[in-house]
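Section 5: illustrative case.
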């Protein structure tokens, strides 16, 4: 695990001040999660999919190529005819860490994620997109931040060192504008809409997901973590637009849902300024 990660911004309440987290890290009963030593935390990865086909295999192979230590990778799907399932079945036969979870809450990415979140185990849970847009080699640093006390680790395309390639001019501009403006106002991450995130599983499982559109759920969870005084940190990442398959992002349909949480964040930040509270 990387030893060079420093949590930027807000005062770290204490290294692993949460005693439940300390017990998680040190307990010998959790050896399958920790790996061979208590210093090597293994991630539980959640991947929402919809007809990604061979992309799921590419994702799995990239995790292994990057040396990511994961306890499990769970692909959450809607329909039994999903084109990804044959590839997942092949991987399951070779690796018991690979799982397929059917979304029983209703079709759509928000229901798939809410279903998976409701089953989140204790420990670090990482959401990864099935389109191979995320920098998976960053996961070890994300886990290090979790060990240091972070409830959410938010890889950022828009902080110093972050990069984005593709994504469409309108969508990428709006995403950058939202993130940078919130960060300038005191929010702890400049990329809250990026769904590639680590969450503390115990905290995540307690959340009642209110999002109705789709990927705005990442912004919702960042807002709720800040409201509760949880530690949210960011790391620079590189994001690539998908090169295989069709994006199901629906900008016009989902924009009102993003705006709901964006304005909620602004209201929270305004209230914090009046009280002298800081989030980083």
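Designed sequence:
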């Amino acid at each position: 695990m990387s030893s060079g990660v420093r949590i930027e911004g807000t005062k770290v309440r204490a290294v692993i001040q949460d005693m439940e987290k300390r017990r998680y890290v040190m307990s010998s009963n959790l050896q399958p999660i920790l790996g061979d030593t208590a210093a090597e935390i293994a991630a539980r990865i959640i991947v929402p999919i919809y007809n990604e086909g061979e992309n799921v295999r590419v994702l799995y192979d990239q995790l292994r190529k990057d040396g990511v230590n994961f306890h499990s990778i769970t692909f959450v799907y809607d329909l039994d005819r999903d084109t990804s399932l044959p590839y997942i079945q092949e991987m399951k036969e070779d690796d018991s860490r690979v799982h397929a979870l059917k979304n029983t809450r209703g079709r759509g990415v928000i229901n798939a994620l809410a279903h998976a979140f409701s089953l989140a185990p204790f420990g670090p849970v990482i959401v990864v997109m099935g389109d191979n847009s995320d920098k998976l080699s960053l996961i070890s640093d994300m886990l290090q931040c979790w060990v240091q006390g972070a409830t959410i680790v938010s890889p950022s395309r828009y902080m110093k060192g972050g990069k984005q390639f593709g994504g469409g001019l309108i969508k990428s501009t709006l995403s950058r504008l939202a993130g940078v403006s919130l960060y300038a106002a005191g929010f702890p991450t400049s990329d809250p809409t990026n769904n590639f995130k680590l969450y503390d599983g115990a905290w995540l499982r307690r959340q009642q997901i209110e999002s109705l559109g789709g990927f705005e759920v990442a912004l919702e969870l960042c807002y709720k973590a800040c409201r509760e005084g949880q530690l949210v940190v960011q790391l620079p990442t590189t994001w690539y637009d998908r090169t295989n398959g069709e994006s199901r992002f629906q900008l016009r349909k989902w924009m009102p849902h993003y705006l709901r949480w964006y304005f909620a964040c602004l209201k929270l930040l305004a209230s914090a300024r009046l009280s002298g509270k800081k989030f980083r």
